[in-house]
Amino acid sequence: MKVLLGTTNPSKVKRFSDLLKGYDIEFVTLNDIEITEEPEEKGTSPEENAIIKAKFYGQYFDIVICNDVGLYFKELDLEDSRQPGLNIRTPMNMNRLSDEEMIAYYSKLIAKLGGKVTAYYLDGIAVYNHGVISSFMDNEAAQKTGVFDMIDKASSKRFEGWPLDSLSIDNETGKYFVDGSIGESKDNIIKDQYEKSIVDFLLKSLYVDSNVGVSGTLTVNQVDSTQMASDEDVLAASSQLMKRNKHVYKELSK
Predict the structure, then answer these.
(1) Is the pLDDT of residue 166 over 50?
(2) From CA 9, how far away is CA 30, in angstroms rounded?
(3) How far, in Å, CA of 93 to CA of 102, rounded?
(4) Within a 10 A sphere around the Cβ of 83, how many other Cβ atoms?
(5) Dihedrals phi, psi of 52, to nearest 5 degrees
(6) Whose CA is closest to 159, among 190, 183, 195, 189?
(7) CATH number of 2-244
(8) CB atoms within 10 A of CB 156
């Protein structure tokens, strides 16, 4: 099975390749099929943005996986303009920051907040599969198992595509995320049970195993592939389902 990953971030590509390692899945990226167009990400949550991207790239490929992420500091109110949220690479309405610019910006912000903050990633995943969009997000799991510290002093080491790992500290070891491998770094955020929930969701959405159960909330939106629903329709359906259900998940940056 060929699956398009709706990203150009090499770290995200490795992440999903590792999550589905051992299954008969071949990943291609936007660069591989020379897609340069990008959708307007106007959702109010990582899940909504992932849905928008999956729907958009579904115009080019039969099966698509998309991911979006928000970063949150517990020291800031959600409404605080300094809260990274969905704008990790474009904080405070800035132009898109490079990896090094992100490290510089967040180092200064964290210094102003006392030199250390308690952080967590919240991210959503959406799968487009021949006209059907499924989505997954876990807010509660992110805040319970995915909390970590970020400090204002950066490590000299870097993981391409995950620049903030150079500021992020494993609460158990006191070491920077970048002091391990990329896989070990993300294991600091994505705990075993949570990772299993993500894999279960992906397998079910890709129809790899129809007997897989998801320990989170799986939202499925039927989309007419010949007459795609508007972004507003997709977001409205997603918002209604999110009000009715507790969604589950966490993590990254494009």
Answers:
(1) yes
(2) 10
(3) 13
(4) 17
(5) -60, -45
(6) 183
(7) 3.90.950.10
(8) 7
Rounded to whole angstroms, what are the CA distances from 78 to 39, 81, 84, 146, 147? 25, 8, 9, 18, 16
With 50 as the cut, is the pLDDT of residue 245 above it? no
Residue bearing tokens 């591989």: 32
Q: How many residues does the chain have?
A: 254
Calculate mean pLDDT across residues 24-36: 95
Taking each helix axis from N to C terminus, what angle separates 192-205 and 10-19, rounded to the nearest 10 degrees?
90
Position 1: which residue type?
Answer: M
Per mean pLDDT, which range of 33-47, 62-76, 174-188 is the poorest? 174-188
- Residues 212, 202: Cα–Cα separation, whole Å: 10
Return the amino acid letter for 174.
Answer: G
Tokens of 41: 């990400």
Burial code of 171-194, b = ≥16 C-beta within 10 A, e = fewer? eeeeebbbebebeebbebbbeeeb
